[in-house]
Amino acid sequence: STPRPSPALLARPRQSWSTHLGPKTLPIRALARNERIELLQKLAKHLTDKEAGDIAGALADLPLALHLAGSFLHKYRNDVSAQVYLDQLQSDYILEHAALKGRGTEQLPTKHDVCVAKTFAMSYDQLDQQDAIDAIGVSLLALSACFAPGIPIPRALLLKTIRDDENEIDPLDISDGLSRLVELGLIETQQEEDLVLHRLLCAFVQQMPCMDAKAQRNVETTLRDEAYRINNSGLPAGLQAWQAHLRFVTDRAIVNEDKMTANLC
Fold this sequence. Notes:
Elements: E1 15-16, E2 24-25, H1 33-43, H2 49-58, H3 63-75, H4 82-88, H5 116-124, H6 132-144, E3 153-154, H7 155-161, H8 171-183, E4 188-190, E5 194-196, H9 199-205, H10 213-232, H11 243-253, H12 259-264
Antiparallel strand pairs: 1-2, 3-5, 4-5
Helix pairs in contact: 1-2, 1-3, 2-4, 6-8, 7-10, 10-11
């Protein structure tokens, strides 16, 4: 049978498909700034370069989201200004925005679903939690969603957050679980060492059952321990690589008002 492409192709196009050789991974370059602006302005011609650039930044350049945003702003240009739309994108419930559910868009060029969350779900649902590797992948996805969205996470730091108090986890299984997420387009690698969870994917994962207090606590514990280790080494500059994550996690922990919060602060 003909192999079917990953449902997340619009989120992260990675593969070329052949009926004879099967799927093979190909590197796909990110849209350049002028291409993002051009895409939005092609759909919503009234947008200025700055407005289009700001919207592309807020949507982290996800092609599907840019298409939906441009279509929405064109259709409702007399009702929703670019600034109002930008303000709405700052909500924690960004995936609930009418634009990202396809309002104002009749058909995508690729015939994909016009709902961002549904597109993500098609990839997420391919993870079988009865499978040991996929289960690790789900855990890593939840842990990734506890970091600052859209900001590169050092691979070694993320892998330190996964732990099982009862059983030792094979490091190779962890690596395979991470590879599974990459294959499904649910997480992106940068220079083989850093990992990035797209802001919209982060919002999606935070709504999934895999998100729980344990994932958040594991990330808090790891960042606390690593920060102390680096500071005590006498070379605190090493902390700069992920200081943004430490600040983000600390800000989210403030409401707990417990010892962990104090240590993070």
